[in-house]
Amino acid sequence: xxxxxxxxxTVPGFVSTAPAREGSDQVSIVGFETPTSTYGFDLMAGSGxxxxxxxxxxxxxxxxxxxxxxxxxxxxxxxxxxxxxxEIIGIDAYxxxxxxxxxxELAHIADYVNDDGEPAISTVYIDLAGDPxxxxxxxxxxxxxxxxxxxDIQGTFFNQTKSAEIMAEQT
Length: 171
Hints:
Layout: E1 2-10, E2 26-32, E3 43-46, E4 57-60, H1 61-67, E5 74-79, E6 82-92, E7 98-102, H2 103-109, E8 123-125, H3 134-150, H4 160-170
Parallel strand pairs: 2-7, 4-6
Antiparallel strand pairs: 1-2, 1-8, 3-6, 4-7, 5-6
């Protein structure tokens, strides 16, 4: 289980062509524990966080292509009326427009911290052992949903294995 945080930011010069966000200048940043297997990146360029001390962001191909960005370039975005720039350390083949970065850094710049200034968690990533099928992941999601519902807790879940299968079918 890994902590995380997701926020929307404005990217100057960007206009989405994705059906759900067409015409928008906003992009989702996914903050997570970067030196873990939380995301199975399919990097087209760069090395990402192969080195745990590596700083920077990974952007998806559609975003990099739209903004004509390459590994080593800086990407700027706006969050809470502040401008932030990070070096691109990887470009991923994911088909949607996203930015990925360390969740603690994202929590600090989003001012999503507790009273002690520690990063607050809004997302939890669960990494199942081995290479589970999308059906196995769905079963675990159902188990977690039942447990949470019994305690009056709501959650939103995403099956990365199923998403990867769908993306593979589309290529």
